[in-house]
Amino acid sequence: MADCLFCKIAAGEIPSTKIYEDEAVLAFADIDPQAPFHAIVIPKKHIGSADEITAENSVEVARVFEAIAKIAKQENLEKGYRVVNNCGEDGGQTVHHIHFHLLARRNLAWPPG
After folding, report:
1. Is residue 96 among the annotated active site residues?
2. Which of 38, 96, 97, 99 is catalytic?
């Protein structure tokens, strides 16, 4: 989508600090990190939110989770990590391109606070 921030980052139109990239997925450093390691992981193909996942595009989300496993190994996150997806306004979604926050390198208590 022409006006999507994350589509522009994926296309290289807006700079980011890349952590991982393959043909389908991009991971980059969050500009407001909530943990010592905080990456945003996106499919390059635009999907607006978790509400828009379908049988036709769910492979893109599967590729994101495959990439997360690779990133965890690449970044030595052997002590653990958290994957978060915000969906919709009440869910805290501020960029309408499905994305996953990968947080690590601190104790992530539950419930989050």
Report:
1. no
2. 99
